[in-house]
Structures are given as C-alpha cells and as structure tokens.
Amino acid sequence: MDASDTSGSPPLRSRRLLVLLLVVGLCVVAALAIYLASRPTHEAAMPSAPPISDAPAATWPAGARRAPAFILSGEDGKRVSLAALRGRPVVITFIDPLCRDYCPTEAQHLNDVANAFPAGAKPAIVAVSVNVYGNAPSNLRLDARKWRLVPQWTWAIGRGPELSRVWDAYHIQVIVSNRKIAGVTVHRIGHTEAAYVVDANGYQRALFLWPYSAAAVERELRSLASAT
C-alpha cells in the first residue's frame, strides 16, 4: 500500500465517523430549534391551571402600609390618581388591554365584585395597563364592550417610564418578548396578575394573586366597610 493512501486505516475512519455524527447531531438540534420557534403557540403544552384562591395572598392592618401614589391618564385623557379616589375603597389591578386569555376573566371577576354592592358602596376599579403597545383608546373601548366593564372601571395608562414606576411600586413584573410574524412585530406580554384592595384612607389592606375568586375580594371589601 502506498504511504499516502491511508483512507482505510482505522484511526482515520473513526475520526471521519465522529465528524459525521457531530454534523448530523448539529443538524438535528438546529432543526428542532427551528421547529420549536416556528410552531404555533397553541401546540405548546399548556400547564395545568392553579386552583382558585379563596383568600388573599397578603393582608395589612389599617394604617400600616400606604398604597403608593401615582398619576396616570384615563382612556379619555383625563388624569387618574389614587389620591382623587380617597374616601372610597379601590381595587387596583394590572391588565393587558390586548390580552385575550386571563385578563378578560379577571375583569369579569371584578365586574362581579362591583355588582355585589349597592350603588353608594361600590368600589372603584383602577386597571393599570401592563402593555404600552395596547393603550390606544380604540383598544380600551373594545375591551369595555367585549368585557362589559362596569362604570366603576377606570383604565390607567401612560408612557413606558410612567407605567414602569407604578409597576415597580406595586411589585408587578412585566416581561415583553418580541417576535416577527409575516414581517409584523408582535409583542407578547407576560406579567404578574395581581389585585390590591385599598381602603378609603388610601392604605393597602389585601393582595390577591390570580386566580382568585370574586367572593374573596367581596368579603375583604365588606370587612373594611364593617370596620368603619
């Protein structure tokens, strides 16, 4: 055998086989990554829903923790502030106006809470937006119709930095992921789903984490009314 002809030697064959396996493995990994990135969201395995909570995740005694103040804008452009609502209980929640899964359900729960009280005792509901890309008045009006929002519901919107300060003050995590679909950038919003009950004096009294029952929020508000 000529000294330059080593194609049949076992070490070289082993090296070639190893390189081939590495290339095939990389191709498989790349193909899997492309598949996971491109498949529709509904194909992903959905985690089982956590049980509905019938009690607040946290409570505070009267006068212990003042709710962080904020000034944002409503859907009509008028100023929305927590201070302006002093004298009545308030439920502060954090909602994505473009959400079509959990947020509409939470809105319905809060509708039920407001409807459980007579006209003079209904709480104000302030929904702070967690989606700076979805705050157009047309989106908010559409939600009002589709979700049948009660008159006590007020959107609180603003620019990114303004909203971020409120999220931080209330310990709300907001994560935005961007994805291009057919050349259009789609923003997906992940956020903490929470609702704070604030008493008429502007103090936090309870925190509810989704999923929670409307009855639990109603009981908390009634306990505040009975204590005054």
Describe this structure in words.
This protein is of the alpha+beta class and 228 residues long. The chain folds into two domains: 10-41; 58-227, Glutaredoxin, CATH 3.40.30. It is 34% helix and 22% strand. It contains five helices and ten strands, in the order H-E-E-E-E-H-E-H-E-H-E-E-E-E-H. It has a six-stranded mixed sheet with strand order 1-10-9-4-5-6, sandwiched between helices. Helix 2 (102-115) runs parallel beside helix 5. The longest helix has 29 residues, at 10-38. The relative contact order is 0.18.
Q: CATH top level of the largest domain?
A: Alpha Beta
Sheet with the most strands, sense and barrel status: 6 strands, mixed
What is the H/E order? HEEEEHEHEHEEEEH
Count, helices: 5
Radius of gyration of CA atoms, rounded to a whole number: 26 Å
Q: What is the compact description of this entry?
A:
This protein is 34% helix and 22% strand.
Question: Helices, strands, pairings?
Answer:
Layout: H1 10-38, E1 58-59, E2 71-73, E3 79-81, E4 90-95, H2 102-115, E5 124-129, H3 137-146, E6 153-156, H4 160-169, E7 174-181, E8 184-191, E9 194-198, E10 204-209, H5 214-227
